[in-house]
Amino acid sequence: MRRGTFRDDTVDYAAVGATHSPDLMQxxxxxxxxxxxxxxxGSGQERFASAGEALLSWTAQKGAxxxxxxxxxxxxxxxxxxxxxxxxxxxxxxxxxxxxxxxxEGTPFAGAGTTVTVHGRVAGLRADAELRVISVxxxxxxxxxxxxxxxxxxxxxEEWFLIEWRGNDEVWFTVRAFDAxxxxxxxxxxxxxxxxxxxxxxxxxxAISPMYTTG
Length: 215
Prior knowledge:
Blueprint: E1 2-3, E2 33-43, H1 45-56, H2 59-63, E3 67-72, E4 79-80, E5 83-84, E6 90-91, E7 115-119, E8 121-122, E9 125-126, E10 129-139, E11 142-151, E12 155-165, E13 170-181, H3 184-188, H4 191-208
Antiparallel strand pairs: 1-4, 1-10, 2-13, 3-7, 5-6, 7-10, 8-9, 10-11, 11-12, 12-13
C-alpha cells in the first residue's frame, strides 16, 4: 500500500482509512452511515487483471454516471506505507513505487495523493465533489484504492474499492464506504444518504462486473 504526502487540508473528515477496518459496519465514524457491497465478478488471473486495471482507471466512477474533471497526480514525493491483511493487521511495507500510468484518453490512473474532481447526479441528486486518493494497493491477488472527500460534496467520507483474486480462483469486487451528511437536505432527511449510496454502489458494480444485471 502506498500513501500520499498530505497537507492539513487534504480531506474534510478525521477517520482517514476507516474503510479498511473489518468492523466498520458495526462501528462507523461518528455521525456517519456505513455501507458495503461485495459481489463475485468472475474467476481467473485474466479477469482479476482486467478488473484491476478498470478499477484504477476510474471505470467505477464513470459507470456511476460521474464525469471526471481535473485529475491531478500528487505533486510531491510519495512513500511506501504498510499494507493490511484480511483482519486489518499491518504487514510488511511495500518497497517500491509504481510509476504513473494513463488510460487511452491520457487520464492518469488512480495513485496515492491524486486529486480528482467529479461532477454529475446520482439518483437525481447532485454528486459534485473534490476527492483525494488516500492509498493504492497493488499486490499479486489484491488491487485496491481508497478515496476521500476534500470539499464540495453533499456528504463527507471515504470509499474503499477492492478487487480480490481468492485462493479458489474466484474474483470478487468489494466496495466499502461511510458517509456523514453535509448538505442541509441530507442532514434533515438521512434516508437520502442511503439512497445516494445505493445508487453509487449499483453504478460501481455494473461498471466492473459483466454479470451484474440488477440492483
